[in-house]
Design a protein that fits this description.
Bound molecules: fructose -6-phosphate
CATH class of the largest domain: Alpha Beta
Oligomer: single chain
CATH topology of the largest domain: Glutamine Phosphoribosylpyrophosphate, subunit 1, domain 1
Radius of gyration: 25 Å
CATH superfamily of the largest domain: Aminohydrolase, N-terminal nucleophile (Ntn) domain
Largest sheet: 8 strands, antiparallel
Strand content: 15-25%
Strand order of the largest sheet: 3-2-4-1-10-9-11-15
Shape: globular
Number of helices: 19
Number of strands: 27
Length: 612
């Protein structure tokens, strides 16, 4: 939610900041703005995308070697030119950009209004800059000290960056709950919500921790202190990311590129962790906790959205293989329903971004009750990864398309490995069966490649449903979460209403929706419940619904009944989600493209949901 970028150095800041904004646009894209220092403090902002900002500044003075820039996902105040960031202080000497939410902004605003401050925008951010300005003026302290004092009065989440006309060689930034990375170049520094804008300039970065303030002065070492005024030694790390990972690489959209990356991303998530020949599953990140996991009486999985769907697959896997009872919770609900958590519980938090506020809050709650928290995150060094006791990174590489694709299959892969390892430790799986599944898991990347070959066929199929208004997705067992994920993918990028249901639930309500206009996507690969799924298909056909069936290659019975068939290679039932998801991603993608939707940046969404 909101991308922030900053630069201070000897080069012109504008092109660096603009490119950075483009790289962060997936985080929010309803308005954008930039502030530059060059004697004067210039501020340009506009409703719309980064490209609109670029047009807006055309012909204006964009010189300056210090600057900050922002791409917004609106929380307080509608997306318009005034609410766009940066925001000036009343004196117009300071400019701020902010990602997060200041929860006590109303109380602070009231106080500032009573002291004569005038507000131009509806944002919570403007409160913060007036507060900092007020402290600076009244207490005669430096900018970084004023920021520190102000942040002690703030309740909420923030990643902020501030520049000052009176301190033109300085950039101050701070974080709590929203991510912030500092890039260290030669005589120059970069600041960003994640490493994507930094990677082409330097590989040396510092990830700020919560409640840390960084003071970056031109030509000096950076200084970090906490909001409690404790000096911290800056600890720099080498970025693992490559530029090619964050570029489209010839694909029309990041989403399509990421769908196509799945043979590799699944392989990367298994790399060094699975050896089928030796019958070994080793997840280094959880090794110190795996005995505790194996002894657990219960596992609770917390996550949101697509990661929650991966969690549902996890539930089937852990119960099926390791015979451990599992509860899968929406992280947002978990926190607010006084859940019963004990020190014996294992809580697995799943998150692509590692920044999702609801998931973080669920972790903090479970931690406070003494549970052991295991993370499954994609973004290395992210807040969730740091908040957990241990965990396994998915290693899917940066996911930039707002709709999650390769992160889902990587999460399911990690959950499969975890369930297999726990099953092995608990003795709940026969050796031959264990080897069988490991062998099959090793072949999944190739089978995903094979599945991707149906893309052209799916594109043709998608063209028939461009004008459709509703979709139903049905699946049973392992394919029930796949149906939910298929429906989510379609609605978020094409704005077609879609619901995912366990196939048998259809007759308890959704069947009322079925007529000759309703496409029903049925994932009919299950061996165990194949006949029952056929009955569900019959029920749809009897009401003249249109069946699009995902079947195992060579299927006969469903083929005869369905209007359209999509085949996936044969695999173990518990691994089907890794294959059946692929055609559903492609179907959503092609329908959305056919409807001229912005696939990578769907309306109202943002990639990393750092607000509750
Ligand atoms: C859907 C999607 C979202 C995320 C959800 C959780 O395509 O991307 O539903 O899955 O916001 O995000 P993470 O996994 O970053 O915690």
């Amino acid at each position: 939610m909101c991308g922030i970028v900053g630069y201070i150095g000897s080069r012109q800041a504008f092109p660096i900041l603009m490119k950075g904004l483009y790289r962060l646009e997936y985080r929010g894209y309803d308005s954008a703005g930039i502030a530059l220092l060059n004697g004067d403090l210039k501020l340009y902002k506009t409703k719309g995308k980064v490209a609109d900002l670029e047009k807006f500044v055309f012909g204006k003075d964009i010189t300056g070697t210090v600057g900050i820039a922002h791409t917004r996902w609106a929380t307080h105040g509608e997306p318009n030119n005034v609410n766009a960031h940066p925001h000036f202080s009343q004196s117009r000497n300071l400019a701020i950009i902010h990602n997060g939410i200041i929860e006590n902004y109303l109380a602070l605003k009231k106080e500032l209004i009573s002291r004569g401050y005038k507000f131009e925008s509806d944002t919570d951010t403007e409160v913060l800059i007036h507060l900092i300005d007020d402290i600076r003026n009244n207490e005669g302290v430096t900018l970084d000290e004023a920021v520190r004092i102000a942040l002690n009065e703030v309740v909420g989440a923030y990643a902020i960056a501030i520049i000052s006309k009176n301190d033109p060689d300085m950039l101050v930034a701070a974080r709590k709950g929203s991510p912030l990375v500092v890039g260290i170049g030669i005589d120059e520094f970069f600041l960003a919500s994640d490493a994507a804008p930094i990677v082409e300039h330097t590989k040396e970065v510092i990830y700020l921790n919560d409640e840390e303030i960084v003071c970056i002065r031109r030509g000096e070492q950076i200084k970090i202190k906490t909001i409690k005024n404790k000096n911290k030694t800056p600890y720099s790390q080498k970025l693992e990311m490559n530029l090619s990972e964050i570029e489209k690489g010839g694909f029309d959209h990041f989403m399509l590129k990421e769908i196509y990356e799945q043979p590799r991303s699944i392989l990367d998530s298994m790399r060094g962790r699975l050896n089928a020949r030796q019958g070994k599953v080793k997840l280094g990140g959880i090794i110190d906790y795996e005995q505790k996991m194996a002894n657990a009486q219960r596992i609770i999985i917390v996550a949101c959205g697509t990661s929650w769907h991966a969690g549902l697959v996890g539930e089937y896997l852990f119960e099926d293989l390791a015979r451990i009872p599992v509860e899968v919770e929406y992280a947002s609900e978990f926190r607010y329903r006084n859940p019963i958590i004990t020190e014996d519980d294992i809580v697995i938090a799943i998150s692509q971004s590692g920044e999702t506020a609801d998931t973080l809050a669920a972790i903090e709650l479970a931690k406070s009750k003494g549970a052991t928290i295991i993370g499954i995150c994609n973004v290395v060094g992210s807040s969730i990864a740091r908040a957990t006791h241990a965990g396994s990174y998915t290693h899917a590489g940066p996911e930039i398309g707002v709709a999650s694709t390769k992160a889902f299959t990587a999460q399911v892969t990690i959950l499969t490995l975890m369930a297999l390892r726990l099953a092995q430790m608990r003795g709940t799986i026969k050796k031959t069966r264990f080897y069988q599944i490991l062998n099959e898991l090793e072949s999944i990347p190739d089978k995903v490649s094979e599945t991707l070959k149906i893309d052209t066929k799916i594109k043709e199929l998608a063209s028939l449903f461009i004008g459709t208004r509703n979709f139903l997705y049905l699946g049973r067992g392992y394919n029930f979460p796949v149906a939910m994920e298929g429906a989510l993918k379609l609605k978020e990028i094409s704005y077609i209403h879609a619901e995912g249901y366990p196939a048998a639930e259809m007759k308890h309500g959704p069947i009322a929706l079925i007529d000759q206009e309703m496409p029903v996507v049925v994932i009919a690969t299950n061996k165990g419940t194949y006949d029952k799924v056929i009955s569900n298909i019959q029920e749809v056909k009897a009401r003249r619904g249109i069946i699009i069936a995902i079947v195992t290659k060579g299927d006969v019975a469903v083929k005869d009944l369905a209007d359209y068939i999509i085949e996936v290679p044969e695999t173990e039932e518990l691994l089907v989600p890794l294959l059946a998801t692929i055609p559903l991603q492609l179907l959503s993608y092609h329908i959305a493209v056919g409807r001229n939707c912005n696939v990578d940046q769907p309306r109202n969404l943002a990639k990393s949901v750092t607000v509750e």
